[in-house]
Amino acid sequence: MADTVARAQEPVVDDGPHDLVEAAGMPVGSGVIKPGYDPRLTNEDLAPLRTQSWGSYNIFAFWMSDVHSVGGYVTAGSLFALGLSSWQVLVSLVVGITIVYFFCNLVAKPSQITGVPYPVINRVAFGVLGANVPAIIRGGIAVAWYGIQTYLASAALDVVVLKLFPGLAPYADVDQWGFLGLPLLGWCSYALLWVLQAAVFWTGMETIRRFIDFCGPAVYVVMIVLAGYLIYKAGWGEIDLNLGEVKYTGFDAVPIMLGAIALVVSYFSGPMLNFGDFSRYGKSFGAVKRGNLLGLPVNFLAFSILVVVTSSLTIPIFGELITDPVQTVAKIDSTFAIVLGALTFTIATIGINIVANFISPAFDFSNVSPQRISWRMGGMIAAVGSVLITPWNLYNNPDVIHYTLEVLGAAIGPLFGVLIADYYLVRKQVVSVDDMFTMDAAGKYFYKKGYNPPAIIATAVGAVVAVVPVLWTHGPGMHTTAQYSWFIGMALGFVVHLGLTRRTAA
């Protein structure tokens, strides 16, 4: 089995098929490029890792950074306002986040074992050049969301600035000091956060690891303090886990619960797809799974309960339901509290932005032309692109964001289906690391001029079918079907790729 995944160090998998991992002389080095690796497919950022040192806490912190954002807060709170009882929402959350946990483990394993990022592991299914298809799709989605998250973080920062310097209010008025739809203060805040994020990213993965290790817990501290303050003001008796009237009972609640489950899975679909970019650093697959368990089911449920407690208490205190934590903090009669809270949520949003929307396109764009685009260069391409799309206009226009991001998002499901079907059923978890880095026609993953038709076709079929309900929203049953576009695309990508591959091999 000379062409199977190899490691020069001790086996890094503490469960699963150990016999698939053999010591075959892979050089010891971070981003080690073996002799014979084609430069058109290789750089130090994409090459297999020399060492994998992330433990369970690092993965746990990654998910905390991903969940503990303004977007995560609003999403969790919205589930409790669907007209379901609190126990129905909690059941939906448990089922949804358990599905995410299961799928993340599936995506994590091939990259953790081989030590390569998401776009490189896709070379096995799509071909050494065809892997640019999923890379560009995922990279494009990440760029758009990177810009939007940076804008949301800058809006939180504006709250702090205006609280400390109320005289700057005219510069926050887009009609007085606006350019391309953003006021001057907004431009300054956006530019500051843009530079800060780029600086953190530029220092490398080790600094990013330390940053996300801090971000997730920091938000918990502020959230708990905020909840404690609201409980002190309103009293324990005002806590209500139902953020609205319970409209659905019995079997009538089932479709709403299924929609809530789909919403949870869809919310995590982006980082779930390219989770291999992070699991590759895991020191063992067991460590990654433990981190996923703590960071997803355990952390997400705890965070969601904290969110609904905090949101419910805004009604008796402020006279209205507030699901945005920045707005909640802004209403507190304390400059220190407002500054601390807004800055914390700003930092948290920076954390999710870096892990979910900066690192992904960095690897994705580097994969397109490894010798011209390094990991850092790929990240900066994403950063510059995030400004050019003027994300504040994208975010403030529901139709544009719907047709741009959801159309791209329809391809996430098929990409996931192809990757999982190929690695677990077609390859049976046996892959050749060396063949992922060769343009030799005899290489296992060269296929037809570097492209594997079954994977391309499966992605296209799944994306086209999944995007129909997204675009045809007024069609019969389309609005409901659109909730499940990820599942539809994933299933089609899985089945079509598996069917075409087996038919070709027959």
UniProtKB/TrEMBL annotation:
<feature type="transmembrane region" description="Helical">
    <location>
        <begin position="454"/>
        <end position="472"/>
    </location>
</feature>
<feature type="transmembrane region" description="Helical">
    <location>
        <begin position="484"/>
        <end position="500"/>
    </location>
</feature>
<feature type="transmembrane region" description="Helical">
    <location>
        <begin position="60"/>
        <end position="82"/>
    </location>
</feature>
<feature type="transmembrane region" description="Helical">
    <location>
        <begin position="89"/>
        <end position="108"/>
    </location>
</feature>
<dbReference type="GO" id="GO:0005886">
    <property type="term" value="C:plasma membrane"/>
</dbReference>
<comment type="similarity">
    <text>Belongs to the purine-cytosine permease (2.A.39) family.</text>
</comment>
<dbReference type="InterPro" id="IPR045225">
    <property type="entry name" value="Uracil/uridine/allantoin_perm"/>
</dbReference>
<feature type="transmembrane region" description="Helical">
    <location>
        <begin position="377"/>
        <end position="395"/>
    </location>
</feature>
<feature type="transmembrane region" description="Helical">
    <location>
        <begin position="407"/>
        <end position="426"/>
    </location>
</feature>
<feature type="transmembrane region" description="Helical">
    <location>
        <begin position="214"/>
        <end position="232"/>
    </location>
</feature>
<keyword id="KW-0812">Transmembrane</keyword>
<dbReference type="InterPro" id="IPR001248">
    <property type="entry name" value="Pur-cyt_permease"/>
</dbReference>
<feature type="transmembrane region" description="Helical">
    <location>
        <begin position="252"/>
        <end position="273"/>
    </location>
</feature>
<protein>
    <submittedName>
        <fullName>Nitrate reductase</fullName>
    </submittedName>
</protein>
<keyword id="KW-0472">Membrane</keyword>
<feature type="transmembrane region" description="Helical">
    <location>
        <begin position="120"/>
        <end position="137"/>
    </location>
</feature>
<feature type="transmembrane region" description="Helical">
    <location>
        <begin position="335"/>
        <end position="356"/>
    </location>
</feature>
<feature type="transmembrane region" description="Helical">
    <location>
        <begin position="177"/>
        <end position="202"/>
    </location>
</feature>
<keyword id="KW-1133">Transmembrane helix</keyword>
<feature type="transmembrane region" description="Helical">
    <location>
        <begin position="293"/>
        <end position="315"/>
    </location>
</feature>
<dbReference type="Pfam" id="PF02133">
    <property type="entry name" value="Transp_cyt_pur"/>
</dbReference>
<dbReference type="GO" id="GO:0015205">
    <property type="term" value="F:nucleobase transmembrane transporter activity"/>
</dbReference>
